[in-house]
Design a protein that fits this description.
Blueprint lengths: L4 E6 L8 E6 L2 E8 L2 E6 L18 E3 L6 E3 L5 E3 L15 E2 L1 E4 L2 E5 L3
Antiparallel strand pairs: 1-10, 2-3, 3-4, 4-8, 5-6, 6-7, 9-10
Length: about 110
Amino acid sequence: METGFVKVAIKSEIAVGKTKKVQLDGKHVLVANVSGNYYAIGARCTHKNGDLSMSVLEGNVVTCPNHGAKFDVTTGKVVSGPKIGFFHPKITDEQTYIVKTENEDILIKRNP
């Protein structure tokens, strides 16, 4: 196994179109299976810390269950911010992680 990568799941745990919250160095990370490719972003909304693993993956987008902020799991970018009445606070993109697979294992690279 290449240095810096940590096994976080196996492929059969995350079906196409699904996500799984895992732990990496004490952080919550969301692993998503988009058309058979795996991606990983922070699992907590950058607005008010909502749990993105409680969201349904729609294509490559997860929506925070708290205030509706949307994130692209392939890039970590904000697709649209939270919607709270007429108030639309700015939020930051999600942290992204390098993901690779080895046989049936899903591995994430630790960030330096």
